[in-house]
Every structure is written in C-alpha cells, then in structure tokens.
Design a protein that fits this description.
Shape: globular
Number of strands: 14
Radius of gyration: 26 Å
Helix content: 40-55%
Number of helices: 29
Largest sheet: 6 strands, mixed
C-alpha cells in the first residue's frame, strides 16, 4: 500500500482515539447531543396518537438536528456530533432524563445484535425502500381494523427514512462548503465526497466506495448494534465494475476498507465491535472467496481496530493462502479475524429449524452469537445464566445426596428451574416491546418479512424469532462437578456440607486443598475422559432445560456458551467454587477450559473443547487459545494451519487466537502508556488490553500459553 494511504489510516486511528467515545468508554452510539434532541422531541410531540409514532418522529427530529461531521482525511463520512453540551443544555438534559423514567422504553433485553439486509440497501437504496413503504401503505384498506396497526408501522418507517435522506443531503452541502476553503488533494476529496453524498444511501451505490458509504451511513445513525453481514457477497459486483472501468485498484480498495473498519472507533465504546463476515458457502455449497474477501482480511492489518472487525467463516475448500493470512494477522497482534466453522454453523442452524437456503446466510452479531442475515428478530444473550452460581445453589440443596448421580440430578433441577424462570422474564420483556416498540423503524425496513407483513421487528415481523440464552462458567461447572465427585463420592474425604463450608470461607486455612484440586485432580482441557464426559453431560442438560420452552413470539430457545465481559462481571459476585477458583475471580472465558488448567498442551485442550456437540449451541461458542507469537509464524505457520484445519474438521464452532506473551501483558499492565494499541481476544471479542479492568487483565495473563 502507498505510504500516503498508510499515513491517512494511521492519522485517522490516532484522531478517533481522542474522541470522548474512546477516552470515556461511552456506551453504544447515541451520545448526549443526539439523546438530548431525541428527548426534546419526545417530550413535545405528545399530540401524536401513539408512543411508537412519537418515537419515530423523535428519531426524525434527531436526524434533522444532527450536525454533519466530516473529519480531515476521511474518505467515508457520517459520525455523530460529539461537541459537549453547554451548561444550559446539560440542565435541560438532566431534567428530560428524569422525565424519561416515566416513558415506556420497551425493555432492557438485548437490543440490536442483528445483521440487516444491506444487500437490499445496495440493490435499491433508501428511495427504493420508501417506494415499497408508500406502495404498501396505499394498498391498505383502513376500514379493516388489522390494517390500522400496519399503517402506523409504515408511517413510522416513512418518517425515519425521509429524515435520513435529508441528513444525507446536508452532508453533501457540508462537503461542498468545506471544499470552498480547501486547496490541493483534500479539495478534490471533499468534492468527491459531495458527489457521493448526493447519491447514497438514497440511491443504489454505483461504486465500491459508495457501497461502503451507504451501509455505514445507514448503520451509524441508529440506536444500537447492527452488523454488516456478508460484505464479500454484496460488494463484489461493485468492486468488479470499478476495476473494469479503471476507477479502483486492489490497494485502493484495501485503503477504503481500512477506513471503513476504523469508523466504529469513533462512535461505539472500545469494548464493543461491529463485524462483517466473509467466506463461508452459498446455498449450493460453493465456498465464497473473492477479491472482496481478501480485501477485508488484508485491511485488518492497516486498521488494527478493536471496534471494526472482520470474521472469517472457514470452509474445507477455503484456500490455504486466505487462512494463512488470517493466522498471520492474529500472530502479529491484530487479534482478528475470529475463525468460524461454516459447516458446523450451517448444520446447527438447520437443527434450529432454518431451511438450507437461509442457513448459509448467517453472521456473528456480537461476539460469536449467530443469527441469519436480514431476517432476524432474535434476542441474543437473553439472559446470561451463571452455571457456577447454580452449582453452589445445588450444593446447598444436595447436601444429603448419596451418590454423584443423585447430586447431579439436584444440580440439573436447579439449572432447569432457572432456565424456565428466566424465560418467563424474557417473555414479559418481549410482550412489552411488542406494545411500545424499541428498535428504530428503519431497522425493520431491512429485516424480512417486516415490510410485507406490516409488522416491526419488535412486533414479531422478522422471519426468525428464537431467543439465545447464554451459559457462563461452563468449564467451572465441569471442573467443580469433577472435584465434588472425587472428594465427596469417590474418596469420601469430605461431605458436600464440609466442602460448602470451605467455599464459604474462600479456602481460608485450606490452601493445601486448593492446590490439590488445581494440580492433582482431573480438569476439563487436558483431554481427561471423565471431565470430557461431564462436559457432554452438562451440554445435554442445558439443551434439555431449553427444550419445550417457548418465547412470547412463539419460537424456541437456542443456547450459547460464551462470554463477553460477563465472565468477569458475574465472577466478581460469585463465591468460591469447588474447582479451586477464589471468590470474585472471573469465571472461565466462554467454553474454554478454566484459566491455567490446559496443562497437557493445545491438542489436549482442543480435544476437550470438542468433546460435546457444538452444533446445538448456535447462541455462540468461543474457544480462546493463547499461543506464543513465534509458533504462528515462519516455519511453524504450516503447523498452525493444520491445527486450525483439524479443529474445524473435528467440529469446533469457533476459534480465537491470542498471540501475545506474558511479559508483554505484564509490562502493558504496568506501563499502559507504552501499549495503547495492544489488542487481545477476551470472551468472544477483541479489546485494547489497557482499556480492560484490572480483573480482566489478570484473567488474560493467567491463561495458558501454548506452543506447537
């Protein structure tokens, strides 16, 4: 890549890291100025007949009052106005926020976390969506009561889409205005931006750059997290047309995509990411690997972003060249792409009830949770379940158990009761969202079959509506069950009650026992037959607990077993556990073995994680493995390639590679100013190490470091 392009990318990265979003960890992408305008409008449009319509008009007011932001060097534009509130505005904000407590806001279950149908946006543009909305609205017979609700939904869509187009036009005007006072190369760039913003996202993009601009612009103005889906499928024709016309080179496209990857650094918290997925297979089973696939992967190295991510769906027919690129990027510290197993995920989605045609068009929408592109009303990580805490409850209830199987039945009963109880909470939350809405109406415009049904996502308009509860502390529960079996039911050294008392005191005066547990008893992650069988048994218990439960929208539960930050957050309020874990220490990271227990090498660790069927856990599985950087490069590269291929061949769902040595992590903790760009994989996502909590930093340091 040209040095001028590298300089642009580095300059943008440095600038975005100075924004309040990055420095203050502001959550999601509605900042105070945008939220102030939303609340202003919501408080003043009470004459509208429904809360959902009031929300849509408030969203339109927000868009109409967004100051266009075009930062120096940007080739793709559309970021929020981060200017601080004045003293008077802050007072108004505080007053309105108090009032918002009495305003229906739907629910607090996960919002967003879906991949919208950006292929449709690229195909017809916002004006095409407006044409569809207007046609469907005009066809309604409003004398039929069921059409009143549809008409309101279409009106909400129209209000928001028209406001988005008005914002787009103001961006074109702003770019021309800036060009008038600019000289040289940047003047031409601004005029090019103006021409681009004259068109997208209102009209279908004509070029690769316009395609990136259209999907970013639509995406960045919404409340929550929405993902870009399969960019190498819907942008490849634009790229090919550019190349054929001599408008674009491969290097130019990598620069553009790197700029695209950096944009989320400026409008979402450093602890959150926006993904696009590349690779995988089409409905006819053919591997997707084209120029855009490689462009997206190559751009990772230049962007080095934690927020803008690329995930790779690995197939048996994927070229070694592409997979080696992915491994090398992890080896040099980019902490992405995460590697997903296309075959396992497709089979899992079909088990969850999807037809073959839809099962091939999926995306991770968050860390590793899988949802179909453009058809999802699915709630992910809803809710988080703490398996370690359930085990401690079972120890209270199962003190009189006569055998390990008796104790396990008590634990399974606690697990099943908790799943059923929390599912009622989720259904009540979905019911409230159906009444008042929550997502922006323009989310539904790019979610099938909302427009044809005349129903928003929150009303159940999407094709797929299952819920993905997530189970934390999987490996802690497996190891703890193994310890209870060994100490209570095999050796009879302890009773359940005595062990509970030791845990209540966090192993005080029992360090020798804790060391025995850690170093002498079997652990998941060492390819031990008994703990592997327990992992399978636990996975089956989770599935049986979900079976037969239904959601408010009439769908089912599809579990996951990974973590975001939650293994640290839940661990902080979970007492000591029988696996030797101290009270307050993070739970195991996703479905990876407990930190420090992978003592038999990476192959044994891999075989343990594959001892249960990943296809049933489409809600997401994250296997984190830390390697020395040297074993992923040079002469060891082929060995790592074979390791990844073997993991996929044997049925692994997803693999995350950390390639940073312990010494570097320790130095970064002590001298964060020297390691601001240090990226690590956490519990399903990438993050800047120095932005993590002390507890989370220690958890990553404590993970085993493998070599091949």
């Amino acid at each position: 890549m040209k040095q001028s392009a590298i300089d642009r990318i580095n300059s943008l990265r440095a600038f975005y890291k100075t924004t309040p979003i990055f420095t203050e960890n502001i959550f999601y992408n509605r900042q105070r100025r945008q939220r102030l305008n939303f609340m202003r409008a919501l408080s003043k449009n009470g004459n509208l007949y429904s809360y959902r319509l009031r929300r849509a008009h408030a969203d339109a007011y927000l868009l109409d009052n967004m100051e266009p932001v075009i930062n120096d060097g940007e080739l793709i534009v559309g970021l929020p106005d981060l200017s601080p509130l004045t003293e008077e505005e802050q007072k108004e904000y505080d007053t309105l926020e108090q009032g918002m407590k009495f305003s229906p806001q739907g629910s607090h279950i996960t919002s967003g976390h879906m991949a919208l149908d950006y292929a449709k946006l690229v195909r017809i543009g916002v004006n095409g969506l407006l044409d569809e909305v207007n046609c469907r609205m005009a066809a309604l017979d409003l004398n039929l009561p069921e059409n009143i609700d549809k008409c309101e939904f279409y009106e909400c869509c129209k209000v928001e889409l028209e406001a988005l187009v008005r914002l787009q036009r103001r961006y074109a005007e702003k770019a021309r205005s800036l060009a008038e006072s600019t000289e040289g190369t940047r003047k031409k760039e601004l005029l090019d931006i103006a021409e681009m913003m004259d068109r997208v996202p209102a009209e279908p993009p004509r070029t690769f750059r316009e395609g990136l601009e259209a999907i970013h612009f639509y995406n960045s103005t919404m409340w929550n997290l929405y993902y870009f889906g399969r960019v190498d499928r819907y942008l490849i024709d634009l790229y090919n047309a550019d190349v054929a016309a001599g408008r674009l080179t491969h290097e130019d496209a990598v620069e553009l995509y790197a700029c695209f990857l950096l944009l989320p650094e400026a409008y979402i918290s450093p602890s959150i990411a926006l993904d696009a997925m590349v690779g995988g297979t089409t409905e006819d089973g053919k591997t997707v690997e084209n120029e855009v696939t490689h462009i997206a992967i190559e751009a990772i190295e230049y962007a080095r972003s934690a927020n803008g991510k690329v995930s790779l769906a690995v197939t048996d027919d994927m070229s070694d060249e592409l997979l080696k690129k992915a491994i090398r990027l992890n080896a040099i510290g980019c902490a992405q792409p995460a590697l997903f197993n296309d075959r396992i995920i497709v089979e899992g989605l079909m088990r969850a009830g999807m037809p073959h045609s839809d099962a091939h068009n999926y995306c991770n929408t968050g860390c590793v949770e899988i949802t179909p592109v453009g058809k999802s009303g699915i709630h992910v990580v809803s809710p988080y379940h703490n398996l370690a805490a359930m085990l401690l409850t079972a120890m209270e209830k199962g003190r009189d158990a006569k055998s390990f199987d008796d104790f396990y039945r008590v634990f399974e009963g606690v697990l099943h009761n908790e799943i059923a109880r929390r599912n009622i909470d989720m259904n009540r939350a979905q019911m409230e969202r159906a009444r008042n809405g929550h997502e922006c109406a323009r989310v539904s415009c790019l979610t099938d079959d909302c427009l044809s049904r005349g129903k928003a996502v929150d009303a159940g308009g999407a094709v797929y509506n299952f819920v993905e509860p997530n189970f934390l502390g999987f490996s802690n529960a497996v190891d703890s069950l193994a310890v209870i079996n060994a100490l209570v039911f095999e050796s009879e050294d302890y009773t359940v009650e005595a062990l509970s008392d030791i845990l209540a005191k966090d192993y005080e005066d029992n360090e020798a026992l804790r060391q025995r547990i850690i170093h002498k008893l079997p652990h998941y992650g060492t390819d031990d037959d008994f703990t592997n069988s327990l992992a399978k048994r636990l996975a089956d218990s989770i599935l049986s607990g979900c079976k037969g439960l239904y959601t408010y929208r009439g769908s089912t539960l599809v579990p996951g077993a990974f973590s975001y930050y939650e293994h640290a957050r839940f661990g902080k309020r979970t007492g000591a556990t029988p696996d030797g874990r101290h009270a307050g220490y993070p739970l195991s990271s996703g479905s990876s073995p407990v930190q420090g227990r992978e003592t038999n090498g990476p192959t044994a660790a891999m075989l343990s994680t594959l001892s249960w069927d990943h296809r049933n856990f489409i809600g997401g599985i994250a296997v984190n493995m830390k390697f020395t950087p040297s074993c992923m490069q040079g002469e060891s590269e082929d060995k790592m390639l074979e390791f990844v291929r073997t993991f996929m061949r044997l049925g692994g769902f997803q693999l995350q590679l950390n390639a940073v040595d312990r010494e570097t992590l320790l130095d970064a903790r002590e001298h964060p100013e020297n390691h601001s760009d240090l990226l690590v994989r956490v519990g399903g996502f990438s993050a800047y190490f120095t932005k993590l909590s002390p507890e989370m930093q220690q958890e990553i340091i404590d993970r085993n470091e493998h070599s091949i």
